[in-house]
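Retry 2 of 3 after timeout on previous attempt. Resubmitting structure tokens to design endpoint.
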């Protein structure tokens, strides 16, 4: 019993320290540079890759969710997204743009498992460098620094535009939606997975949801979250969409990721040695945000949105 109380006391103290650091060191969105700098730092020190692997996104745990290895769930997410977007029906050599590619985990699966010709873009130079280091020269996966709000590619460059969890970093969702559709070829496929908030035009945020949302935005350089309904409307408003945008909510399938993210710090204790005290403190400050994310997605304040559509052929 004494050992239990001691462990509980130490755990509580650690959490309190994490909360204090978290409140004193917000990462508010200021410009695209603030996003790039945040990811540069995480990539350069290797902490995020050590705990989260090559896929800096949530995992897919099945419908209904079941226990699954954290890293396997992340790889499974890519395959589930491919199937949901019906990309598995496309031929090898299909040109894919991976918007917000991180260190290239999803890009490499798309190239290796499906034979696609993948170009990954991120605003972080360090992520591009690391993605290149992790990618075999035999894979048709290439990476470059580019701004998703103003991409360097000509109109109609890609058969598929693929994007996972990049939208919250975009300050103007309408511009982002237009850029995603602009670089698609006629009849090309757009598949997006994103963190969204509940549509507050229908149900406004209540007294506790507003401060939670404020913290979620300020801690990870997010200017705002779109709703699933709102972003679908913005895609359709570009004039590039054939028919309607198909959406889905994968909140339940991805929900275990948040606690699993924290659990990695417990099951990988060697990280304490690898990254030292500074790395421990940096990791600790993320725990409150991860818990708030679990709260938000578990209560419906946030939703995990899926979007797919094709580009109209105006020729």
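Retry 2 succeeded. Sequence:
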């Amino acid at each position: 019993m004494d050992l239990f109380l001691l462990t509980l006391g130490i755990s509580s103290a650690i959490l309190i320290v994490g909360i204090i650091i978290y409140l004193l060191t917000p990462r508010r969105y200021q410009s695209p540079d603030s996003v790039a700098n945040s990811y540069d730092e995480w990539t350069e020190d290797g902490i995020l890759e050590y705990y989260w692997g090559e896929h800096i996104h949530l995992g897919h745990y099945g419908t209904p969710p079941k226990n699954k290895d954290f890293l396997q769930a992340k790889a499974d997410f890519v395959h589930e997204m491919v199937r949901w977007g019906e990309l598995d029906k496309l031929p090898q050599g299909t040109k894919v743009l991976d918007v917000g590619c991180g260190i290239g985990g999803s890009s490499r699966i798309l190239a290796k498992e499906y034979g696609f010709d993948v170009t990954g873009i991120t605003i972080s130079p360090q992520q591009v460098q690391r993605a290149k280091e992790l990618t075999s020269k035999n894979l048709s996966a290439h990476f470059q620094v580019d701004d998703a709000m103003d991409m360097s590619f000509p109109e109609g460059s890609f058969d598929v535009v693929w994007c996972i969890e990049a939208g919250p970093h975009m300050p103007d969702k309408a511009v982002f939606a237009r850029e995603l559709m602009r670089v698609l070829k006629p009849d090309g496929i757009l598949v997006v997975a994103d963190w969204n908030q509940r549509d507050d035009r229908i149900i406004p945020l209540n007294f506790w949801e507003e401060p939670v949302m404020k913290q979620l935005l300020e801690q990870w350089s997010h200017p705002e979250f779109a709703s699933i309904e709102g972003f679908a409307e913005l895609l359709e408003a570009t004039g590039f969409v054939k028919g309607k945008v198909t959406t889905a909510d994968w909140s339940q399938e991805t929900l275990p990721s948040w606690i699993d993210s924290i659990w990695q710090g417990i099951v990988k204790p060697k990280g304490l040695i690898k990254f030292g005290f500074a790395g421990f403190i940096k990791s600790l400050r993320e725990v409150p945000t991860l818990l708030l994310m679990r709260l938000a997605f578990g209560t419906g304040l946030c939703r995990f949105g899926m979007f797919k559509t094709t580009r109209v052929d105006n020729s």
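Attempt log closed. Confidence is low (pLDDT under 50) at residues 3-8.
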